Amino acid sequence: MSETALQAILSLLIKQIVLFLLPAFAVAGWMNQRMVQGGQHPAITAIVALGLGPAAAIALFFHLMLIAPNMPYWLYIGLVSLPFLVLFVLFFRQSLMCFGEAWSSLQKLILPIKGGALLFPVGLVLFLMAWVRYLWLKPVMEHDTLEYATQGLVFFLNPVIEYSAHRYDAATGFYYVGLHGLNFPLFSTWELMFNAAVGTTSNLLFRSLNSYYGLLIALFVFLYLRRFAPRAAWFGLAMLMLSYIFFENILKYHIDSYRLFFGVAAVWSMLECIERPQWRNFFWFGVLSGLQASAHSLGVFLSVIEFACLFLFLPLPLLPRTKMLLYAFALFFTGGALHYVLDVSIGTGWIFKEIAFF
Questions:
Q1: What pairs with residue 352 in β-bridges?
Q2: Distance CA 248, CA 170 (A)
Q3: 289 in Cβ contact with 303 (< 8 Å)
Q4: Can you list the positions of beta strands (E) in the chain?
């Protein structure tokens, strides 16, 4: 029996708390403690954490399925959530300060506008209502999105991540030809497992991914440019939202906003490393570049370019520069590049082998 709209919205809210907000608050508190010591603004850290948290949880999910397949669904959900719950408890105050600063930064830019005190909360509520309504009405469609969703279903039906020359599922007759990391379809797998564990059926969380990460890109641009001038923040946001491709892309259920967010975040982190070459900044660069790679194959090549830029422009002697880059590379490899090494060595061959389409 299908869920009613109210049940589906409640299900989406619970899933977002478990997979989006809990990891985001946990990561924000940890990042804020370390990044603020390095000079970074908490509002930017909050936006990055909102994207990093869910993706890090799914990256952990990938590693769990890789080394411990066929576990009960509730156990996967619990094991993915547990470390973020611990971090949330440990860094709760830092999390509140981080997101409080982000909220304050938004208010400072909007409230001075005539009627902003009323328009801000009313506009936010109307936007959220329209967003959920849109997710409810528009089905999952288009080739790539259907492919990711179907691969997510395959992982749900058979919780095993295996590498072979042909990613073919005999039970469904589905042949997955994707070249990219598996994090995006695993969002669908996580949602299906959560549904099975608690007795819900909606897939609104998977539908929300592209618009969620698109909004994070817009917020990042808005708050990042604020440090130069309020007008720069508004002008940058207007240029971004008036770009037809960006605006139209937010209305799709696709991977683009997800992968682009980590492209933006990884470049931001790279610049932080150049401006303040400290171990804490290299830690987050390694994490973000790994998630950039796990999101999409282009992320691997972008990460290589970013590592090259760091090697060339870091204001450090050769030995400490090399040590910091190796540290970041180890995180990059574990967090995302591992998939491609496995795929090249025992899987499809990735870009080094022509894909047979059926």
A1: none
A2: 36
A3: yes
A4: 168-169, 174-175
Contacts of 157 (CB under 8 A, 6+ apart): 171, 172
For 113-168, write each residue's pLDDT tens digit: 666 666 777 777 887 888 888 888 888 888 889 999 999 999 999 999 999 988 88
Instruction: Find the helix or strand (DSSP H, E) in which 142 lies.
Output: none
Q: Concatenated DSSP letters for 322-354?
A: HHHHHHHHHHHIIIIIHHHHHHHHHSS-GGGSP
Instruction: Please give the Cα distance from 329 to 288 (Å, whole number).
Output: 11
Question: 227 to each of 220, 234, 236, 237, how far by Cα in Å?
Answer: 12, 12, 12, 14
What does the alpha-carbon distance between residue 236 and residue 248 come to, in Å, rounded to a whole number?
A: 18
Cα-to-chain-centroid distance, residue 303: 16
3-state helix, strand, coil in the chain (%, to 5): 75, 0, 20
Q: Which helix (H) or strand (E) holds 83?
A: helix 73-90
pLDDT digits (tens, 9 = 90+) for 271-327: 999 998 989 899 999 999 999 999 999 999 999 999 999 999 999 999 999 999 999
CB 95 within 8 A of CB 88: yes
**Alpha carbon 94 to chain centroid, angstroms:** 21
CA distance 66 to 137: 35
Q: From CA 353, how far away is CA 295, in angstroms rounded?
A: 20
Q: What are the structural domain ranges in the chain?
A: 5-254
